[in-house]
């Protein structure tokens, strides 16, 4: 197969940010394993479902960016080292050890017990906007909901929630402020460092107190008593759980609401048959997920996908959202169909790095979206969909900066 090298400038455009699926369709058809060039690093992008599934389960594609080769320097820059020594950027057996420790806090029974608290937070947030007849669903609902849930689960003091949210939003909205790139990078690095120092301080404060029933206390025990975590791993894992525990869920809720509001027949179906909500959440995640490309992998040896040679040391991106629109995997894949049989979508990843917080994400999405539809009658976009402000196309996340809506107060 001919390798059609694609400059990132041709892929990550404003048009791509608004709707990446035509570009993904063209890549799936013409160059399903496509070399992509960019100023910071070159990579290979995999877009077909079967290839994506195989790649996510291929041990030759390593997630360890912090080994002797120091791949993180190419991808994230030097400031990332302190906050990225965690299970996301590791391979078995290190990944297995870190995931086993962290998964205790995500036991399905414990997460299911959070349903009443999630519903309570949802009600509190909506009580503030219902009388207004209008809202920004991102800043008023989709972002604070999972942030409040994961902060409570971790054991972050309530008085600090707003400051923690402010730091994470600087990181999330990188590239959208309109500031010069160097200034933008400096702001993001400062937010990362501030959040890192803050979490280290929270950990030290908890060490001086009797053990509490929260995730950070459990991780401290694994570090101090069992010796299963290093101090660096402890802080980095806390950072990962905080950021991953709210970012993708917030973006997903925003994407899901846009999908529903721009597909009125599907919205009407869900309003008439609310029992479809659990399967609807799965279809909405397949249709427009918050993580268009899985976090980067490194080829540890020369390998080949669809006749394209990927040399050892290459960065490989698996385009989850492209795979989830593959017509060979899903009938009428570009159509939102809430009555679709639950299929093997990859919205939560695949393989050993399958999302650890899947149960919590589903609970937040089901309760949150259900409440929005119930409590905001006549819900509609306040702007044409093409005018919605989105995260930059080069962002690792697919999400909205704002989601202005109107409804019948």
What value does the Rg take, in angstroms?
A: 21 Å
- The CATH superfamily appears as Cytochrome P450
Mean pLDDT across every amino acid position: 91
Q: What structural category do the secondary elements indicate?
A: alpha+beta
Major beta sheet, strand line-up: 1-2-3-9-6-4
Q: Write down how many β-strands occur, each being a DSSP E stretch of 2 or more residues.
A: 11
Strand content: 5-15%
What is the count of distinct domains? Answer: 1
Kindly provide the name of the CATH class. Mainly Alpha
Corresponding CATH architecture: Orthogonal Bundle
- What order do the SSEs take from the amino end to the carboxyl end, as H and E? EHHHEEHEHHHHEHHHHHHHHHEEEEHHEE
The total of helices stands at 19
Shape label: globular
**Helical amount:** 40-55%
Largest sheet: 6 strands, mixed
Query: What distance lies between the first and last C-alpha atoms, to the nearest angstrom?
Result: 58 Å
Low-confidence stretches: none
Query: What is the CATH topology assignment?
Result: Cytochrome p450
Organism: Asanoa ferruginea
Family: Belongs to the cytochrome P450 family.
Keywords: Heme, Iron, Metal-binding, Monooxygenase, Oxidoreductase
Protein name: Cytochrome P450
Notes on the protein architecture:
Keywords: Heme, Iron, Metal-binding, Monooxygenase, Oxidoreductase. GO terms for molecular function: heme binding; iron ion binding; monooxygenase activity; oxidoreductase activity, acting on paired donors, with incorporation or reduction of molecular oxygen. With 409 residues, the chain is an alpha+beta fold. It has a single domain, classed as Cytochrome p450, CATH 1.10.630. The chain has 19 helices and 11 strands. It has helices at 8-11, 14-18, 21-30, 49-56, 72-75, 94-103, 108-112, 115-129, 137-142, 144-154, 161-172, 181-207, 215-224, 231-244, 247-261, 264-272, 277-287, 320-323, 358-375, and strands at 6-7, 33-37, 43-46, 61-62, 134-136, 297-299, 303-305, 308-310, 315-318, 380-381, 404-406. The chain has a 6-stranded mixed sheet with strand order 1-2-3-9-6-4. Strands 5-11-10 form a 3-stranded antiparallel sheet. A two-stranded antiparallel ribbon has the order 7-8. A hairpin with a 5-residue loop joins strand 2 and strand 3. Helix 11 runs antiparallel to helix 12 and helix 15 crosses helix 17 (277-287). The longest helix has 27 residues, at 181-207. The radius of gyration is 21 Å and the shape is globular.
């Amino acid at each position: 197969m001919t390798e059609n090298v694609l400059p990132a400038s041709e892929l990550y455009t404003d048009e791509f940010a608004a709707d990446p699926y035509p570009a993904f369709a063209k890549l799936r058809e013409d160059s399903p394993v496509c070399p992509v060039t960019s100023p910071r690093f070159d990579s290979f992008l995999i877009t077909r479902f079967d290839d994506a599934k195989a790649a996510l389960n291929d041990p030759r594609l390593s997630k360890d960016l912090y080994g002797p080769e120091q791949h993180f320097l190419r991808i994230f820059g030097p400031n990332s080292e302190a906050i990225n020594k965690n299970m996301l950027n590791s391979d078995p057996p290190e990944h297995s050890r870190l995931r086993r420790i962290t998964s205790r806090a995500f036991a399905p029974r414990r997460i299911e017990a959070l349903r009443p608290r999630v519903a309570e937070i949802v009600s509190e947030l909506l009580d503030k906007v219902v009388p207004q007849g209008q809202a920004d669903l991102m800043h008023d609902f989709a972002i604070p909901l999972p942030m409040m849930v994961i902060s409570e689960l971790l054991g972050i003091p309530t008085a600090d929630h707003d400051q923690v949210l402010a730091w994470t939003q600087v990181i999330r909205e990188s590239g959208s402020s309109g500031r010069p790139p160097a200034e933008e990078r400096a702001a993001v690095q400062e937010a990362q460092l501030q959040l890192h120092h803050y979490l280290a301080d929270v950990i030290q404060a908890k060490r001086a107190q009797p053990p509490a029933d929260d995730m950070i206390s459990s991780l401290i025990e694994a570090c101090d008593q069992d010796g299963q975590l290093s101090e660096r791993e402890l802080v980095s894992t806390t950072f990962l759980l905080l950021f991953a525990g709210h970012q993708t869920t917030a973006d997903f809720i925003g994407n899901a609401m846009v999908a529903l509001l721009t597909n009125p027949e599907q919205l009407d179906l869900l309003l008439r048959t609310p029992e479809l909500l659990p399967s609807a959440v799965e279809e909405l995640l397949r249709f427009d997920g918050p993580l268009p490309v899985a976090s980067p992998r490194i080829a540890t040896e020369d390998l080949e996908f669809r006749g394209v040679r990927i040399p050892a040391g290459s960065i490989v991106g698996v385009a989850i959202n492209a795979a989830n629109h593959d017509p060979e995997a899903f009938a009428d894949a570009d159509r939102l169909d809430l009555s679709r049989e639950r299929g093997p979508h990859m919205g939560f990843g695949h393989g050993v790095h399958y999302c650890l917080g899947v149960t919590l994400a589903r609970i937040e999405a089901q309760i949150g979206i259900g409440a929005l539809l119930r409590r905001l009658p006549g819900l509609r976009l306040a702007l044409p969909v093409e005018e919605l402000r989105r995260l930059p196309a080069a962002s690792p996340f697919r999400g909205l900066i704002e989601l202005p809506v109107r409804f019948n107060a």
